[in-house]
Amino acid sequence: MRLRSAFSMIVAIFVIVMLSIVASYIFYASSSVAKEGDIQYKREQAMLLARSYTEYAVLAIMGNGDRNNTVNNRCLTNINAIIGNSQNDVNRGLGYQVNVVITYIGDSKYLSNQCVDANNINISRIAAQSPTVQTDSLSAIIDVYVRYKDWSNNALNGANAVNAANVPWQTYHRRSIQKIWESLKKHLHLLS
Questions:
Q1: What is the predicted pLDDT for the residue at 105?
Q2: Using DSSP, how many helices (H) and how many strands (E) does the chain show?
Q3: What whole-number distance in Å separates Cα of residue 48 and Cα of residue 96?
C-alpha cells in the first residue's frame, strides 16, 4: 500500500512538471506571436503611408505652379514628413519618418535643363530625355522611403530608453512611375 501511494505521488509530480512545461511554452508562443503582430502592423502602416505619400506627391506636383515659371524655375524634388508627435517620438519608435524623392521624366518644354530650389541652388532631379520618352508628356519617378523603429525593442522602453540611437531603423521603400501630364492632342487624335 505504501508503494502504491509513493508511485501515485511520483506520477502526480511528473504530470505537474509536464503541465508547467506546456504552459510555459504556450506563454512563450503567445508572446512571440504578439511581437510578430506588432512588427507586421508597423510594416503594413509603412506600406500604406508610402502609397499615400506617392499620391500626395502627384497632387503636389500638379499643384506646384512654379514648375513652368521661366523666371523662377522651381520644381518639387523632395517632400519630408514626420508622422507622430515629434522627431523624438519617432526616434523612440512611436511614429514614422517619410522622405519622398521626385525625379522628372518628360518633354523639355515642360521642364528646363535644371531645377533650382527657393535659394536658386541647382538641384538636378531631372532624368535625361531619351528616345523612349513620349513627346508631349510629363512623368515622374517617385521614391518614397518610410523609416521606423521597432517599438517593442527593449532599448526603446523602460530604463534603457537612452539607447534609442543604437536601435536600427527599418526602412520601407516604394518606387513608382506616375504620369503627370499628357498632351490633349493625343487624346483627341485617339477619339477621331
A1: 79
A2: 3, 6
A3: 12
DSSP code, position 171: E
User: Does the pLDDT value for residue 47 go beyond 60?
Assistant: yes
Dist. CA 98–CA 46, nearest whole Å? 9
How much is the pLDDT for 15?
92
Those residues with Cβ within 8 angstroms of residue 168's Cβ, 6 or more apart along the chain or in another chain:
149
Whose CA is closest to 179, among 89, 54, 82, 73?
Answer: 54
- Report yes or no on whether pTM surpasses 0.70: no
User: Taking the CB of residue 23, how many other CB atoms lie within 10 A of it?
Assistant: 10
* Nearest C-alpha neighbor of 81 from the set 54, 44, 112, 104: 54
**Strand partners for 156:** none
Phi, psi values for residue 147, rounded to 5°: -110, 145
Question: Locate cell 541652388: which residue?
Answer: 121
Vertex 90: Cα angle to 85 and 91 (nearest 5): 135
Q: Is 149 exposed, middle or buried (0-12, 13-18, 19+ CB in 10 A)?
A: buried
